[in-house]
Amino acid sequence: MIELPEALSRAKELNNALIGKKIVKVLLPTSPHKFCWFQGDVASYPAQLEGHMIKGARGFGIFVEIECDQGVYMCVNDGVNMTVFTACDEIPEKYQLAILFEDQTSLVFQVAMYGSLICHHGNYENEYYLKSLEKISPISSQFTYHYFVSVLENVKPTMSIKAFLATEQRFPGIGNGVLQDILWEASLHPKRKVNSLSKQESQQLFQAIQSILGEMIEQGGRDTEKNIFGYFGGYRTRLSKKTLHQPCPRCQTPIEKANYLGGTIYFCPQCQKNI
C-alpha cells in the first residue's frame, strides 16, 4: 500500500523514468475490479491521455500524481501498484489500466484490494486527496512539535494512538503500515490512549515520526512494497508481516500481532506495553 514514503519514492522513480515520454496508446482494463474506481467512464481515458507528454510526477499523502502537458493528470492512491516495462518486456495479462509510450515502454496499473485511477484536469475533489494536499505534511518544516501537540490536544482523549495517527488524514501519508515502526521506535503500544501519554512520550512519538519517515524515504520505501521496477524498497521494517514471531530488534522478545481497528497491528509485548 502506498503511504508517504512510497508516494515520494514512486514519484521520484516516475520522474527519472518517464519525463518527456509521449503517450501513444491507453489500454482499458482487461480484468475489471469491483473496488477499482475511475473519474467518470474509463472508456474516456484514451481520448483524454493519448498524444500527451509526461511533464513530471509528485507524491503527497497516499497519492502519486503524474502530470501531462495541457493540464491533464493521472492520479493514483494507496491501493494501486504501478510497474514500468521496457520495450522488450511483455506486460501482464491482467491489469486495470496500461499506458504505452512512443519508445515502446509502458506503465501498467494494477489494483489488489482496492484503489483509484483518476484521470482529471485539475478538478479532482476527493476528500482524502484534498486533505493530503492541504494538511501539513509530517516531513514539512511546518511540522513542528508545537503543531503536533495542537493536533493531539484536539482529539478525543480516549482515542487510541493508532486512530490518532492513521485515521482522518490528520498526518497525510501515515497509515497502518508506517505506523508500526513509528510506534516501535517510540516504545508505544498502538492501543494506548492519547490521554495516557506523558510529555516525554509525546516528544518521543513526534521524534519517531520524523526519524522513521526520514529513513523510509531515504531508502526508497519499505521492504513490504515494490517500486515501479518490481523491486522491494530498501527500508527493512522492524514490525511487519515479514518480522512476525521474529525477535524484537531491541529486546529479543518475539513480535506479536493482533487485529485492531480494521487492520493488523504488530508490536513487541515487552517494549510496547499497553499500560
From TrEMBL:
GO terms for molecular function: 8-oxo-7,8-dihydroguanine DNA N-glycosylase activity; damaged DNA binding; DNA-(apurinic or apyrimidinic site) endonuclease activity; lyase activity; zinc ion binding. It comes from the Bacteria. One of its GO terms (biological process) is base-excision repair. The keyword Transport does not apply. Pfam families: H2TH (PF06831). It comes from Coprobacillus cateniformis. This is Formamidopyrimidine-DNA glycosylase. The lineage of its organism: Bacteria, Bacillati, Bacillota, Erysipelotrichia, Erysipelotrichales. Residues 227-273 form the FPG-type domain. SUPFAM superfamilies: Glucocorticoid receptor-like (DNA-binding domain), N-terminal domain of MutM-like DNA repair proteins, S13-like H2TH domain. InterPro entries: FPG_N (IPR035937), H2TH_FPG (IPR015886), Ribosomal_uS13-like_H2TH (IPR010979), Znf_DNA_glyclase/AP_lyase (IPR000214). Keywords: DNA damage, DNA repair, DNA-binding, Glycosidase, Hydrolase, Lyase, Metal-binding, Multifunctional enzyme, Zinc, Zinc-finger. Belongs to the FPG family. Gene3D superfamilies: 1.10.8.50.
